[in-house]
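Hey, can you fold this one?
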Amino acid sequence: MSNAIDDYNNAQTPEAKKICRALAAGIQRGLSKAESKVWHGGPVWFLDENPIVGYWVRKDSVRLLFWSGQSFDDPELEPEGKFKAAEVRYQSASEVKATRLAAWLRKAKKIQWDYKNIVKRRGLLEKIGEW
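Sure. Predicted structure:
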């Protein structure tokens, strides 16, 4: 995990810091081969340059976003934006369930839309892999 992510997490309020650290640790376990960096203002993990998961601290919560999350078919994840992303919001570190996060990360490795080439394809997403 990059030092920039540690810096991001350490700059948060005490409760948000706990949430961020729990998310970062779980994501790092689940995506140990992923590249990670602060991107668009928050920590994001990539597989082959394709964004997979990230989180952002907002005024009311910490938002965990899966770029392909709408395809996970999970009612706990709320659609976000006009593409295939979905999110969950945390207000307390006790809400972060390691087993739930691990299950989403397993899906995230398998179920991916090609965001890396979305500009080249003029906003069209294509599935990556066989799922």
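The longest strand covers residues 50-57. Let me know if you want another pass with a different chain boundary.
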